[in-house]
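Quick one before lunch.
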Amino acid sequence: MLNKEFFAKNREQLFLQLAPNSIAVLVNAPIYLRTCANYPYRHNNDFYYITGITEPNAIAVFLKGEHNVEYLLFQPQRDEKQEQFEGLCATENELMEKHAIHQMYWLHELDQRMPELLSNKEQLYYPYGRYADFDLRVQQWMHQARLEARQGVSVPHEIFNIETIIHEMRFIKTPEEISILQTSANIAAQAHLQTMQACRPGMHEYELESIFVGSCMKQGARYMAYESIVASGNNACTLHYMQNSGVLHTGDLVLIDAGCEYQSYASDITRTFPINGRFTPEQKAIYELVLAAQLAAISKAKPGNTWYDCQAVAVRTITEGLVDLGLLKGHIDDLIENETYKQFYYHKIGHWIGMDVHDVGAYKIKEDWRVLQPGIVMTIEPGIYISREAENVDEKWKGIGVRIEDDVLVTQAENTILTAGVPKQIEEIESILSIG
Ligand code: GLY
Ligand code: MN
Ligand code: MN
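Model of the glycine complex:
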């Protein structure tokens, strides 16, 4: 569990980057109503990273002076009736003590207090563009504050998107965060293993999903990091297939792309395996090629290289392999240059992962791909997809979709695969499936 020192350190880092005489505002996510009940609540990661607070709708305000910062929190007023329905909220004293807050206010006081808080500040930092109704409220507060111009009041003359600062902070993971990411990865790996062991021809895709989700929950991961993809046969050629309604046919592969969220940190794993436990020669050839591309890309995930180095080596490995198998024809460099390989490998090699499954942090700094450094966590997930509709392809290849995805921590030496707990070598997979 992240402790309060983690959040205090994050606030300190944020405050160092705020100009003197400025104001910063952070907003937690709203509650979205479904019908009579709400959609599952998920806090805003930037808000959480800085405050450690998960209370819905809370708003944090930081007033940076020349040397000090005042921390105000606006939170929804406690309501006995609501608490009967939804459980107790944290009290003001609990929040103030736990989070080093200087002043607490009720949320309904925000519109009245904000114009004054904005007055005579030089810069305003807030998550511009994140919540449309909040942008509108900021405009209204600025307008209110401007009405006092003839009393000598000024409003911030510069507005910064605070997300750009916090996202760069979130990009490099601390040892505490890595430890939680490792637990998230372990839980998802164990769930993948159990799902693989339970697979039988004739089951529905959603039955495998239920085994994955149930296993994560049993291990303490109450929420998934994203909707699980369980795609058998040709369904695997749809990248974000999420119906999970098909029947598992013997002779087909099944691709499972699923990960959990543990203590706000995501895992993201894909494994592909034969429903009846044995790869056909064509499935094996494609699988081995994807695995070779993934291992090549992982070997590039080290300090000094870039995300693009991982992408480039995967593209080259896949293109060469597809030429060897007769699925692509031509010169390798031309097929890469013209992006012909995209007929079969049409997504990118991976993404940063952290509190968000597709985590924050720039991929390029100005024109240049960002250089990898220890503490970056990224997925490596090449795939090859040969759909039933593919043109100019021998029938024997059709309906094969393979992706292999791991979460990789860049370290001083090279990297650590956080999701190594779930096997991906053909012999290992066949052996697990034969035991069942
Ligand atoms: N599961 C989403 C992704 O792999 O990016
Ligand atoms: Mn991914
Ligand atoms: Mn994935």
